[in-house]
Each structure stands twice: as C-alpha cells, then as structure tokens.
Amino acid sequence: MMNTTNTLPRRVEVVEVGPRDGLQNEAEPVPLDAKVELVDRLSAAGFPNVEAAAFVSPKWVPQMADSAEVMARIRRRPGTVYSALVPNMKGMEAALAAGAGEVVVFSAASEAFAQKNINCSIAESIDRFRPVAEAARAAGVKLRGSISVALGCPYQGEVEPAAVADVARRLADLGCDAIDIADTIGVGTPGRVQAVFEATARAFPLERQAGHFHDTYGQALANILGALQLGVASFHSSVAGLGGCPYAKGATGNVATEDVLYLLHGLGIETGVDLRAVVEAGDFITRAINRPNNSRAGKALLAKWAAQAGESAACAA
Ligand code: HMG
Ligand code: MG
Fold first, then answer.
1. Residue-wise pLDDT tens digits, 291-306
2. At 3, is the secondary structure helix, strand, or coil?
3. Which-ligand-closest: CA of 187?
4. Per-residue pLDDT band at 161 (split at 50, 70, 90)
5. Rounded to the nearest whole angstrom, what is the distance from the C-alpha of residue 146 to the centroid of ligand 2?
6. What string of DSSP letters covers 51-111?
7. Section 148-165 average pLDDT
8. CATH number, residue 213
9. pLDDT score, position 253
10. How far is the CA of 271 from the centre of ligand 2 (A)?
11. CA 92 to ligand 1: nearest atom
C-alpha cells in the first residue's frame, strides 16, 4: 500500500475542461460568442490550463467543429495554457495551426470503449499517437495522454487497475509529459481510485498524473480527496458541472469546478484561481445555453450574493 498521509499537497493545479468536455455533449449548437466568452472568463479567473478545443472528426462530435474559430478569437492570458484534444495527425495539424499550448491524445483502459470513442483498438490508438508525439516534441508543445474508463466501462464493466497501468506505461513510452486518469462514467469510489493510482504510479510519475472525475454517482469530490491523500496534485473539473460524454450514455459532466475550488480552498490548498470569477462564469454559461447549474457551491454562492445585494439595496433605500 502507498502512503496515505494527512499531508495534502499545498498547491494543486485545477484544469478547467468545461469548454471542451462540458460543451461537447450539447445537442444544440452553442453560439461561438458564448464559447469564446466562456474561455475568456475562465482565463481571467486564473486557471493554469483551460481545455478549450477538440480537433476531432466533426461527424463524431459536431459541437467541437468550430474549435479553430474559438482558438482564434479567445484572449490569451500569459500563464494559461490552452489545451486541445487531438485523436490523430489530422487533429494535430489543426491544433498546431490554432496555437494550442498542449495537445491531449486520448485512449482507454478498455478495448470496447476505445472502439466506441475513437474507432480503433488501444494498440492502434498508440500507433496513431506516435507521429502526434513527434510533432509535439518538434513544435515544443506539451503532450498529455488521457485514459478513459479507468474506473469502470459502460460496455465492459469492471476495469482492472493493472489494465490502466498498462496504458499509462504505453503513454510513458510515447513520451507524454502528463497523463489523466479518467472516470468517464463516474462510477469510482475513493478506495478504488487509490488502487488505480497505486498501480499507475508504478508506470508513470504520480506528480504528473491528474484525476479527471465525472460525477455521475456523486463520488467525485470524495475521489479527489482520496487522490490528494496519495499526493495527486492535478485535477480536472468543469464549470457548473457541465457535460457528459457522447460515447458514455447517462454519464454526467465532470465534477463542478466551483465545488472543487471550495473543497481545495477549504483545505487550505492554493490553486491560484478566483472562485468568485468561476461562479460568475458558471452563471453566464448556464444562462447562455439554458442549462441547470450543477454546482452546489456555485448555486449557494449565487444565492448568498443575491441576498447580500438585496440587503445593501434595502439599506441604501
Ligand atoms: P474514423 O471515422 O475511424 O476516421 O474516426 P477516419 O480516419 O476513417 O476518417 C473519417 C473522416 O473523418 C474523414 O473525413 C477524415 O478526414 C475525418 P471524410 O473523408 O469522411 O470527409 N477526420 C477528421 N476530421 C477532423 N479532425 C480530425 C479527423 N480525423 C479524421 N482529427 C476518429 C476516427 C478518431 C477521427 C473519430 O473517432 C473521432 O474523431 N473521435 C473523437 C471522439 C471524441 O471526440 N470523443 C469525445 C472526447 S473524448 C472524452 O470526452 C473523454 C475524456 O474527457 C476523458 C474521459 O472522461 O474519459 C478525454
Ligand atoms: Mg471526460
């Protein structure tokens, strides 16, 4: 067993994936202006990394078809890396042309999910990523590898930690700078999450791994705490808890960023991100696309601030 000490990381990187993972699942086209304003608001909130685009087949994920326009129109903040998903060289060329600072290749811990999501086997996906990795190195762009269904697969069911570690090893061999352990369908619980990180830590440095937890079963915050106890210091989240996965029916969005920040800041962990600005960004995008706000902390803070504004207006009257 790895050490689960009470010494939590003092600083954590929160990667905002709402503009990509959050919006990709929307059936109705999200206006370009709304996408751009969302990314700009998130940049201003201080995220070190915003996943802003996906250069994937527009037939597979139509919502991401305007990724080049999004990347061209956003205001780039020094200190924020704008990352983009790329499944192959075609996506890589588009991502480099768009000025992505980090590209994300994505495979899976189950063969069934790899087929559904990227239409190939795990081994074939790694082969497709080889030229992408070379191009990333040549361009000086960071390379991240994401492992879907690391805590369970909607088609296969149980996924062994050893299977996740096997993909982590292949992504290490590919030269990935970082990897994401993704609970695509949000089925993990903290003990299981720790078992997976214990296995992947033998294949890839733990300090360069991130937890990417969807919140379908309401376990994501507990899973983050479990991962923090092992020393994991990077987590993905989606503003207002937007999203789902087009290839994992019934899965909800990532854990809401506002809730993650509330947890981390409450534990005295620095993130460099302004919670208020994120809550306002969540309010903006949920109104813009007419979606419920799925952040508990976001809704609570909006209600509190509205009440405070009402009180001060009453005092002034
Ligand atoms: P395919 O159909 O096997 O690809 O799809 P193909 O190489 O046979 O090409 C078919 C057509 O797609 C061709 O066009 C290509 O040009 C085009 P046509 O000749 O028919 O007009 N094409 C592309 N167009 C734009 N950009 C590209 C691209 N590549 C091919 N990059 C492929 C294979 C991988 C492309 C497809 O399956 C795909 O795009 N999959 C992406 C699915 C996706 O985006 N899923 C959601 C993101 S992953 C996720 O959310 C999980 C994550 O959050 C972690 C977690 O929670 O698990 C990261
Ligand atoms: Mg995801």
1. 999 999 999 999 999 9
2. coil
3. 1
4. very high
5. 9
6. EEEE-S-TTT-GGGTTHHHHHHHSPPPTT-EEEEE-SSHHHHHHHHHTT-SEEEEEEESSH
7. 97
8. 3.20.20.70
9. 93
10. 21
11. 31
270 belongs to a structural domain: yes
| Ligand 2 center–CA 23 separation, angstroms | 11
Would 40 be classed as within a structural domain? yes
Tell me if 27 sits within 8 A of 278, measured CB to CB: no
What percentage of the chain reaches a pLDDT higher than 70?
A: 97
* 212 to 13, 76, 247, 264, 312: CA distances (angstroms): 12, 24, 16, 15, 40
* Ramachandran class of 241: left when φ > 0, alpha when ψ lies in -120 to 50, beta otherwise: left
Distance of CA 123 to the CA centre of its chain: 23
Least confident of 242-251, 265-274, 300-309: 242-251
Structural domain harbouring 104 = 13-316
By three-state DSSP, how is residue 8 classified?
A: coil
Q: Has this prediction a pTM greater than 0.85? A: yes
Direct distance between the N- and C-terminal alpha carbons of the chain, in angstroms, rounded to an integer: 62
DSSP 8-state code for residue 207: G
Helix (H) or strand (E) holding 146: strand 142-148
Residue 62 has pLDDT above 60, yes or no: yes
With respect to residue 2, please indicate whether it lies within any of the assigned structural domains.
no
Residues with CB under 6 A from ligand 1: 21, 24, 54-61, 85, 87-88, 90-91, 106, 117-119, 146, 148, 182, 184, 212, 214, 245-247
Judge whether 265 lies within some domain: yes
From 17, 26, 57, 237, the mutation candidate for ligand 1 (largest count of ligand atoms within 8 A of CB) is 57
Q: State yes or no: pLDDT of 4 exceeds 70.
A: no
Catalytic residue positions? Answer: 245
Q: Does residue 3 register a pLDDT over 60?
A: no
- Say how far apart CA 67 and CA 52 lie, in whole Å: 8
